Each structure stands twice: as C-alpha cells, then as structure tokens.
Amino acid sequence: MARILVVDDDPLIQATLPLALVEHGHEVVQALDGKQALKEIRRGPIDLVIADVLMPEVDGLELLRSMQKEQFQVPLIAMSGGSSRLPGADVLQLARLLGARAVLSKPFTVDDLQAAVRTALGKQDGSPGPSE
Amino acid sequence: MTIFLVDPDPTDRQRVREMLRAAVPEALLEGDGSDLDDALTVPDLRLVLLEQRLAGTTGLQVLERLRRQRPEVGVIMVTRHGDEETAVTGLKTGLLDYIPKGRLERLLPAVRQALASPKPGLLHGLSPRGRRLDSVAHDLNNALTPIRLGADLLGRVRDEAARRTLADSIIAGVHRCVALLRGLPELGAAAPAEPVPPAGRGQLVLLAAEERGCRDLARTALESNGYRVLTAGNGAEVLALHEQHRRHIAAIILDLALPVLDGIALVRALRATDASVPILPACGVPPEQALLDELGLRAFLLEPYTGYRLLDALHGLLSPRERSEES
C-alpha cells in the first residue's frame, strides 16, 4: 500500500478523495497547493502524487516541472475539471506531455481513481505510461 | 507572473510599458525580438505581447513557436504592421487578441482578461462568453467530484464519522452546483427557440410515480398541455384506478420502480385485463427490447426526463392509435 500525497485547493475534494484512498489501504498526506506539496515531497517518503492541474500559486503543472527539476522520481496523477471540448482537456494533455503518469478528468468515480492509482504505481520504471 | 513585450520599436515599447505599469502588477520583460530564446524559458511567463514585424522573423512565426513550446502562455498581437490576413491567421493559430497600435485603448482590457486565467494560452478560440462558460464548466466538474466520490463511497465505507463527512461533502457539492447553475441563464445563448410540446385534447392519463414531487411536476406538465390526469403512488392504486376508469383512460404513464407492486408485475397485471391501452414506462436505464416486446410497450421514458420529453413521448404513443381508430 502506498503513501499518497493529495494536492488540491478544493476543501470538498480534500474531504472525499482521501477517504477513497484510505478505503483501499493507502496512507494519505494532504497539501492545498504546489508549494506545500513540494515541501511534503522533500520531506518524503511519498509514493504517488495526485494533483489538480489548476490551483492558485504553484499549480499542478508547475509542481510537475519542479519535481522534475529536483529529480524526484515520484509518479504523478493530474486531475482537472475541464470538459473534452474545452481547454481543461488540453491541460490534461499538457500534463501528460510533461510527464504525468495518468490523468483523471473530474468528476471521476472511485473505480476511475483506483485504476489511475494502479496505473501510476505500476509503472515506476520511467517508461511512458499507458493511455489512462 | 511575467509579461513579455516583444517590439523592435523603442518608442512603442515605452508607450505599452507605461500603460501596463499603471494598471497591472505583473513584471514586464522587454525585448526587440532578438532575445526570444531566453524569454521563452521564463518559468512564470504568462502573457506575450507581440509586434508582427520583427528582425529576421515575424510575430506569427513566434506565435507558432510559442504555441508549440509554451501552449499555456497567452499571446496578444500589438502591431503597427499587421493586416487583415495577419489578424485572421493569428487568431486561428492561437492569438487571444489582435490589437492595432492605433487602437491601444483595447490593450488593457485584453491584458486583464488574459491575466484572469492562470493559463491564458489555453483560452484560445473561446469567445468571452465561452471563456466564462468554460470556467463555470470547470467549477461544476469540481463541485460534482465530491458528489460522485461521496455517493460511491457511502456504499463502501462503514466508519460513522467518515460517512458523515461524505454526506456533508455531497450536500456542500450540491449547494455549490445550484449556486453555479443560478448564474447560468445570463450566460445562455440568445434565447433558442423553445420546442413547443404537442398538446393533448383532453385525454385522460393515469400517472403513477412513487415520489410526490416527481408526480406533481409531471402532472403539471400534462395538465397545462391539454390532458386530464389521474395520479397513483403505488401499483395497487394503479390497478384500482384502472379498474374504475378503464373505459376513459387513454394512456398510462408509470415509473417502473413502483412500491407494493413493481412496474413490470404491474404492467403484466394491466395487460391481463387490457391488452391495448398504451403504457409509457419511465425508468433509469433503458429496458431490454425483449422485455418491451413481451409487455407490449412501444416506447419508454428515460429518467430524468423533462416536461417536453414526457409530452413528446405521450403524444407519439397516442397519435398512431388515434390515427388507426380514425381510419
């Protein structure tokens, strides 16, 4: 079971998403933005980061860039609430290009979440992640 | 956050600089176009203001490069040397706006609008209304997430405190959705022509649904469109009313998930005494065609339905029968 960092500025998501992870035996650490997240990652150990793409201050994409700059190998799942025809979907595409291991389009189910977590944790060898 | 101003003309740069300095807090980098490589790697770059005529390149070429390398960065062309062709190509390629230097009064509003988004480059191609709708869509998806996760988890989590948290999150999410939806009408398209629901001609309809609110809404829709309505809250009531008013009932609309006698058993019971009365079942998932055939059901109403869909389906169910009777 993994130690997972959940990064989202939305209190309702912070109230529900961790419960879904704990239910599956994971341990959860929480951060409200990319800055806090980076602190937690430096403190470690974190096995997986699940981060919203759009947040105030340091957002998910900048977090991803910073993690790479500091050479952290922690896999990241990017979440976003954009719809497929609108810019949010581009954001997730962008997150993938930047190295996100999986993406979650909000709103998602507990099963979607578990699948993304499995994908992200299963591919830690640096090879390109599968499509979802 | 940084704005990068690319313009070979020092006088023009100064004018733009002074306008921006007074109005926006972002740091301003300037260049004449020869130092693009460095500027494009500025990590917190948010917006580029671009002249079309540059030494050795064009604004449009820089734009293309930016879209490839930094799609999240917004680009506004501010030019003395553009033309219609440049504007159209630029706006298609990803410009947020095109501002001739003779119209600099448009600059600040455009800059402010771009800076309102954390990733202005991704707003490309959307009208102001589209951008606002996008932001509502984004907020709605965020608000729906705790509802979706919460509903999923309520069925799996046993811990009392966790269940309370989930219930609270679902309620808060719903409230947020409602607040967002209240803001939507002003954003709607200029009044699309509402389809006119086909009205009835006084036919008597037996309407059965367990939930009173649901029944009342459907009843109102039917009664205000020329039908007379009998209502029932469970299967036993349906059978009793059908028995009593059988000769006058033109159609039966029923929720397949009724208490006492469930919808399917109810339809079978009705069919045993009345093979021909049109029955319109409402259900959350489409029923199997074989089941529809077996029960003599020609159509169904997928929940949740609108008043229009209800009337449309009912009309469709009634008119062939009436036609065949008339002929």
Explain the layout of strands and helices:
The complex is a heterodimer of chains A (132) and B (327).
Chain A: E1 3-7, H1 11-23, E2 27-31, H2 34-43, E3 48-52, H3 60-69, E4 76-80, H4 87-97, E5 102-105, H5 110-122
Parallel strand pairs in A: 1-2, 1-3, 3-4, 4-5
Helix pairs in contact in A: 2-3
Chain B: E1 2-6, H1 10-23, E2 27-31, H2 36-39, E3 45-50, E4 53-54, E5 57-58, H3 59-69, E6 74-79, H4 84-93, E7 97-100, H5 107-115, H6 128-154, H7 160-182, E8 204-208, H8 212-223, E9 228-232, H9 235-245, E10 249-255, H10 263-273, E11 279-283, H11 289-295, E12 301-302, H12 307-326
Parallel strand pairs in B: 1-2, 1-3, 3-6, 6-7, 8-9, 8-10, 10-11, 11-12
Antiparallel strand pairs in B: 4-5
Distance between the termini of chain B: 75 Å
Largest interface: A-B, 33 and 36 residues
Q: Trace the largest sheet of chain B across and list its strands.
A: 2-1-3-6-7
Q: Overall pLDDT of chain A, averaged? A: 83
Instruction: Please tell me how large the radius of gyration of chain B is.
Output: 31 Å
Give the oligomeric state of the chains in this entry, treating copies of one chain as homo and distinct chains as hetero: heterodimer
Helix count from the secondary structure assignment of chain A: 5
The structure class of chain A reads alpha/beta
Largest sheet of chain B: 5 strands, parallel
- Taking pLDDT < 50 over at least 5 consecutive residues as the criterion, the unreliable ranges of chain B are 323-327
Low-confidence stretches of chain A: 83-89, 123-132
Shape summary of chain B = elongated
Q: pLDDT average of chain B, as an integer?
A: 84
Portion of residues in beta strands of chain A equals 15-25%
The strand line-up of the biggest sheet of chain A is: 2-1-3-4-5
Portion of residues in helices of chain A?
40-55%
Strand residues, percent of chain B: 15-25%
Secondary-structure content class of chain B: alpha/beta
Q: Helical content of chain B, roughly? A: 40-55%
Order of helices and strands of chain B: EHEHEEEHEHEHHHEHEHEHEHEH
